[in-house]
Amino acid sequence: MASSCRPALTGVSYSLDDVPPGTLVEFTLSGTDGKYFYDVSLVDGYNVGISVVVTGVKVNRSTCGYPECVGDVNVLYPAELQVAGKDQKD
Questions:
Q1: Which of 69, 53, 52, 50 is closest to 11 using CA atoms?
Q2: Parent domain of 65
Q3: Is residue 47 part of a domain?
Q4: How far is 88 from 32, CA to CA, in rounded Å?
């Protein structure tokens, strides 16, 4: 499953897919007793920082807020620690 993340403050676009290493975020929107859950997993590696902020007010029918990418990992880690995607050179 592919998805994209476009942080409003940085203007950086990320393209994410299910090929490790990859940060995984899962949301359960119809959980037990009507509760919503989320899970952030780094078990298959790390490719993008994730932030989920509880807003205290309902946003899109929940109080989980907006998940977002928190930075460009390409500037944080040296090339030898990076794994390029199949369509990317760096």
A1: 69
A2: 3-81
A3: yes
A4: 41
- Does residue 21 have a cis peptide bond before it, meaning omega lies within 30 degrees of 0? yes
For residue 19, is pLDDT > 50?
Answer: yes
Q: Model pTM? A: 0.43
Q: How many residues does the chain have?
A: 90
Tens of pLDDT, residue by residue over 34-59, are 777 788 888 887 777 777 776 666 65
Give the chain's radius of gyration (CA, Å): 15
Query: Residues 90, 74: contact at Cβ < 8 Å?
Result: yes
Q: Considering its fold, how many domains does the chain have in total? A: 1
Is residue 88 one of the residues assigned to a domain? no
Residue 26: inside a domain: yes
